[in-house]
Amino acid sequence: MPKTLWKYSLLILVVFLGGCWDRVEIEERGFVVGAAVDFPKEGDEGNEMEEDAANKPHGKHRYLLTLQLVVPGSMSQGAKTGGGAGSGGDAYYNISSVGDTMFQTDRQLANRVSRSPFFPHMKILIISEEVARSGHLPDIMDFFLRDSEMRRGVKVMISKGEAREVLGVKPVNEKLPAMYIDSVTENERSSSATLPDPLRIGDLNEKLLTRESFIIPRIKSAGKEVKIGGVAVFEGEENKMVEWLGGEEVMGLAILKGTLKGGAININVGDNLVSYETKGDIKRKIKADISDKENMKFIFTIESEGIITESMETIDYLNDPAKWVLVQNRVADEMKRMAEKTIRKLQKEMKLDVIGLSTYLAQNYPELWKSVGKDWDHGENYFSKATLHVKARVIVRNPGTVNQTEPLQED
After folding, report:
1. What is the pLDDT of residues 96-118, one digit of tens each?
2. What single DSSP character describes residue 348?
3. Phi first, then psi: what are they for 56, rounded to 5°?
4. Residue spans in the chain of domains classed CATH 3.30.300.210
5. Which class would CATH give 247-411?
6. How far is CA 282 from the centre of its chain?
7. What is the pLDDT of residues 219-249, one digit of tens each?
8. I need a labelling partner for 139 at 20 to 30 A (CA). Which of 74, 79, 182, 364 fits?
């Protein structure tokens, strides 16, 4: 073999052999499935040595980071469900540390576990209400967004109470609390419309960059379960949590945004209840009068089609079409009532637009938006000065059967 060719062959071989120099074996990974961020309480301590902590720089706040890591050997069929660190056979353990930054806290945790934290399989990030109200959400998210291992599909939630308590729930039918929480957030697609859509890290990053007001779903620990419902409303200028929206207000928000799916709406007919369920997406149209920017007018027109899923009132729809119209009108009135309740809360109390009117104006009236955008829901707050009306139209496609064993009643 020529000497030159031999040198090139050796060089190529060295390049290929060095391709896995920084590989970490899977057995050495600490798989993180959930994380929680709180402010530390009295008794929560960091992991730095006392002599190192004396003169080092400190941030405005110290954070308590809790990670939920998988115990691979306990994920077998016979492993116990529930539990936590220190209980033999559990499929996970939670570990916490205090630090001035997320990165510092993460590295301190790495010094205490046998496997370095590995984030690509993380499902849930929970931030406490206290932290959310402090305005430090962007600081916290900076660490998770910069981490090259972090996937943009991680779901973000705000906890009512301490975030680490949520990761400490002990579900009956799941080995990992974080996976249980992840599954519960997906149930909203086929259950109650009062459950908000999940918010993922990638979407939150966009909201933080646009500086528009936004919402994040609420979660609360309840023993062996979690309760998900309502949303935290954030002011986009300072990215600080302002207030909660409750279940009915979240449904009203979904109606206004045209995102309501599978929502069950109860109405009174006679002395009993009738339950209506939307089928498919509702249709939302907005008509605007922007002739006076100090008093802009918006009309939301909502159209919904659905079915009667349950009726405690005996109604003969076939022989009395007027009853059919009555039910449709009452469902429409109920949708309008919930939407208007949400408008009052957002426009008069919070004075924040999470309905999407800012996006509507920016897309359809860009010249106007240039003059009012900086003062839309802060400063001059044109949003709070605007007049919002709601119109609703409902079509019942399938009223269901009639219970002939009960006498028909007049409304």
Report:
1. 989 888 888 888 877 777 677 88
2. I
3. -80, 155
4. 247-411
5. alpha beta
6. 21
7. 999 888 999 889 999 999 899 999 999 888 9
8. 182
